[in-house]
Amino acid sequence: MRGISCISIMNERLEITFQVALDLIYEMKLASIKSTILMDSFMIDQLDKVDIAISDRLQRDGKLSNVKLAEQLSLSEASCWRKQRRLEECGVIEGYQAILNRKKLGLGVMAFVQISCTDHSEEATALFEKIIQSAPQVLSCHNTTGEADFLLEVVARDLDSYSRFVEKVLRKLPGVSSIRSNLSLRELKATHRLPVTELLSL
Fold this sequence. Notes:
It comes from Pseudomonas asplenii. The chain is elongated and about 55 Å long. The chain has helices at residues 2-40, 49-60, 66-72, 77-89, 122-134, 159-168; strands at 109-117, 138-143, 150-156, 176-183. Among the domains are: 44-90, Winged helix-like DNA-binding domain superfamily/Winged helix DNA-binding domain (Arc Repressor Mutant, subunit A, Orthogonal Bundle); 102-183, Alpha-Beta Plaits (2-Layer Sandwich). The protein contains 6 helices and 4 strands; from the N terminus they run ααααβαββαβ. A 4-stranded antiparallel β-sheet has the order 2-3-1-4. With 202 residues, it is of the alpha+beta class.
């Protein structure tokens, strides 16, 4: 009887331990879901003046060290690092990269291309997006209002290269009914900087 009692007690302890483990896993999953929801719902009203200042300075100089950034904003290095890390985790800061001069790399042609489509099926749209995403000549693609369905920003070495791209890539896109190219004669302004300092006046 004593042996049976010991086994019973051990089983109860195992059941309790197993239940605790299940509860812990549940809590961890719940915390992960809550964290994901929090990041997805990160809104502009959650940014303070320091967050905006950090974002603005880093988009102007992505190589700015945490030490110099903290010094410019009169913050402690730890506080500055935490805020920058939070901006990265919430997706406000998506990454850091060098900005290249396209003309010095021999990409002398820039075109803004309007594309109209007749086939708007899910399959055709998915294939269209896949081809555009894989084309390095396309810097950006927007689904727009107006007469055309898409507006593309395309770069090429010269007019011959651009013409080949149109014939071999754009004209073979599914469901395309018309392509209208507008070539840039002179670039007056080109920047990736967002007017984040204007958010301070909202």
